Amino acid sequence: MNFSLGNSYTIIMKNNHPEKFKEAQDTGQVMVDDCIYGYVSGEGAKIHQLSDKQHAYIMTENGNTFDCLTKKG
Question: The whole model's pTM is what?
Answer without folding.
Answer: 0.84
